[in-house]
Amino acid sequence: MTTLTANPSAPDTDQALFRAHHGLVQIVALLWVYALYDELRSHVAGATAKASQHARALFGVERTLGLNLERGIQSAALHLPWLVAACNVSYNSLHLVAPPIVLVMLYRRAPQRYRHWRNVFVIMLGLAALCFWLYPVMPPRLVTGTGHLLDTSTVYFSLTKTPLASLVSATASSGPSVTGSTNPYAAMPSLHVGWAIWAAIALWPLLRRRWAKAALLLYPTLMVLAVLVTANHWVLDAIGGAVLVLLSHTLARAVERCQATVGLSRESPVPA
């Protein structure tokens, strides 16, 4: 008589297959969302005159507040060609690498946290595109006269001078892009800075080693330095990136609370 025994590993295998399938769906969905954002952003570029006017207005506010640090920071960095080259490479590449790594780590190690910070990421894209449309800003490297700074990618080593130029596609845009379509006036807020802060906050609880946490804290700091040295953003753009993260986090929390409330109401028994 043959005895059938249950395979104890079957549930684990099914769960692993489900997570793999779900993860693939997440990847495809996020790629579509980012492609939509990228296309939308390239079509909401404002008029050159408006972008220049807004840039000069920001520069005026910075001077009033004592935040016009761009020229001093770039001038100091230009004495260190290796630093300028590192800023060029960081600006052109880290925004393509960091978000996928962060999302994969969260998905594998902290699914609940993944859902929230994925939502924050998507909301950031939407709000940033809206800002680029309503308030186009010319970066320091494109303005003329007072406030103009050197476009370091034209003089120092940059990925835009390598075969990867078609991928990074950052020469004509202040906002991150993975396609040939760019928006040269997508400066406010700085998504490079915003994503760096987003990555640091999202991953912070998952890291245990001190060196890893130190590196995570260093990432937003170095990105702020990179966007200023390369003259792709104003100081207020960087601050705008931080505000964008805070606002997106708040909106994501509100949406999640609404979803939880609706879910509880559906599960509540109907009185007889």
Question: How would you portray this structure in words?
Answer:
The chain has helices spanning 10-42, 48-65, 70-77, 81-109, 111-134, 165-168, 191-203, 210-229, 235-267. The chain is an all-alpha fold and 272 residues long. The protein has one domain (48-262). Helix 5 crosses helix 9 and helix 7 (191-203) packs across helix 9. It is globular and about 65 Å long. Mean pLDDT is 84; it is low at 176-180.
In a nutshell, what does this entry contain?
With 272 residues, the chain is mostly helical.
Number of strands: 0
Output the number of helix runs.
9
The tally of domains stands at 1
Q: Considering DSSP H and I runs of 4 or more, what fraction of the residues is helical? A: 55-70%
Helices, strands, pairings?
Elements: H1 10-42, H2 48-65, H3 70-77, H4 81-109, H5 111-134, H6 165-168, H7 191-203, H8 210-229, H9 235-267
Task: Spell out the key features of this protein.
mainly alpha, 0% strand, single chain
